[in-house]
Amino acid sequence: MTRIHQSARRRTGAVAAVLVLAATACTSGSEPPAGAADPVEVSITPEAGAEEVAPNTPVRVSAEGGTVTDVRVEQVVVDEAGTVGDEDDDPALYEVSGTLDEDGGAWVADWALRPGAEVVVTATVEDGSGARSEEVAEFTTAPAVAGQRLELVRNFPNSGETVGVGMPIVVEFDLPVTNKAQIENALEVVSDQGVEGAWGWLDGDRTVVFRPEEYWEPHQNVRVDMHLAGVEAADGVFGVRNYSLDFEIGAERILTMHVPDHELVVTTDGEEERVIPVSNGLASEHFNTTTSGVHALMERRETVEMDSSTTDKPDNLPSYNTTVQYGIRVTNSGEYLHEASSNTNIGIANTSNGCTNLRMDDARWLYENTLMGDVLETTGTDREVEWNNGWGYWQRSWEEWQDLSGAGGYATTGGTPGSVHGEGL
Q1: What are residue 82's phi and psi, to 5 degrees?
Q2: What pLDDT is recorded for position 198?
Q3: Which of 16, 76, 113, 412 gets the most CB atoms within 10 Å of its CB?
Q4: Cα separation of 5 and 33, whole Å?
Q5: Spatial separation of the C-alpha atoms in residues 93 and 105, rounded to whole Å
Q6: Which residues contact residue 41 at a Cβ distance below 8 angstroms, ignoring those fewer than 6 apart?
Q7: Whole-angstrom Cα distance, residue 327 to residue 137?
Q8: How many CB atoms lie within 10 A of CB 12?
Q9: What is the pTM of this model?
Q10: In the 8-state DSSP scheme, what is residue 310?
């Protein structure tokens, strides 16, 4: 059943569970009895019988002389062979909620329609006497053209994962996006403890990242509903599927490191948990200087090949290739926290190639007791981590981060900034 929201753009209204009765206001051939309410004039757009409707056209229902009490939008995608497509998709992903105006006489869908679908809209309305009637409209939507079907490539985190309070939500698409506002408006983030955040686009227009204004509150659940089906991502390019992502924010774990001190301090939920001796970058060159700034911990591997060819090391300096244990990635440019048993300067001097070197026991403990998205705050070097080097998104101020949004700013979790529908539709 489609949700009905009781104000112009409010998305938190209760679900209206309405019993659908047989039509009473559509009977012809007789005059209404004395004292009966005037019939309700119901309009549904797109109109019944319409073919190949643009998927980003909003479904609208109006009830002149009455109120809209329920709208159901059913969508079935049928391929060229006449079989139902995407049979493995959860039907709940395609429920179309809507927003009712303050007078209760006009309803508009929040989300777009599936491309290449047979659509049935069933509207229930009520007249002034409380009598209900039902109106049905059936139509089809245009299919998405091969090569112009926007799909999800990958996302971080994955469903079911527990992550740290600095975790960004990263969504990568297979095609570039030019209609950024509509795509952002289709990505609905809901958290147990509401937070203000914004989506920001990376270079290349295929990756969009959600970052709260401040770190996430710990110990809560977060859901991302991606209502992408039918949204026009670029000229003639439409989303074809919806997705849902659920993950958990774990403890507030903050790692702090002032590089000249040769130690890493781990604080969990406000309590100091461990002080770890380290050796950081030698800092004789830019490439072997440990980056200062706010980092979110990235991928984790029990063994990592440290290959200088994957770094920004100048060609005139000696190359290296070695395998280390318990690696936690900090940047895309090759900076890790990792075991370095051969480094006798741990806790004494900074002699690494830019990574944070740890003794074996400490490296193993850190690997086993931290999460992707935990925060590393580093100070004391003259190399600031670039905001787009790994997950350094916290390097941008809140105002600077909002500048990366195509929708023009923040969205409180549990809603989106605006419409997913095409302009003028």
Answers
A1: 85, 10
A2: 93
A3: 113
A4: 33
A5: 27
A6: 63, 64, 65
A7: 58
A8: 9
A9: 0.88
A10: G
Task: For 166-311, list the strands marked E by DSSP.
Answer: 169-173, 187-191, 196-201, 207-212, 220-226, 232-234, 237-239, 243-249, 253-258, 263-268, 271-277, 293-296, 300-307
Q: Is 291 helix (H, G, I), strand (E, B) or coil?
A: coil
The pair of structure tokens assigned to 341 is: 């048993």
Taking only the tens place, the pLDDT of each residue in 385-395 is 999 999 999 99
- Report the candidate in 13, 365, 376 with the shortest Cα–Cα distance to residue 167: 376
Sign of CA dihedral 410, 416, 422, 423: negative
Look up tokens 């009781």; give the residue. Answer: 6
C-alpha to C-alpha distance for 246 and 128, rounded to whole angstroms: 43
CA separation for the pair 71, 124 (Å, rounded): 6
Which residues, listed in sequence order, are joined to residue 123 by a DSSP beta bridge? Answer: 71, 135
Q: Write down the residue that tokens 């996006």 correspond to.
A: 177
What is the spatial distance between Cα 29 and Cα 219, in angstroms, rounded to a whole number? Answer: 63
**Pairing of β 336-339 and β 356-358:** parallel
Tokens linked to 328? 């936690």
| Average pLDDT over the chain, rounded to an integer | 89
DSSP string, 87-141: TTS-GGGG---EEE-TTSSEEEESS---TTEEEEEEEEEE-TTS-EEEEEEEEEB
Contact by Cβ (8 Å): 375, 165 = yes
Cα angle 91-93-94, degrees, rounded to a multiple of 5: 75
**What per-residue confidence (pLDDT) applies to 86?**
58
Burial 287-322 (b: 16+ CB within 10 A, else e): bbbbbbbbbbbbebeeebebebeebebeeeeeeeee
At 150, the amino acid letter reads L
Angle formed at CA 66 by CA 62 and CA 70, multiple of 5 degrees:
65
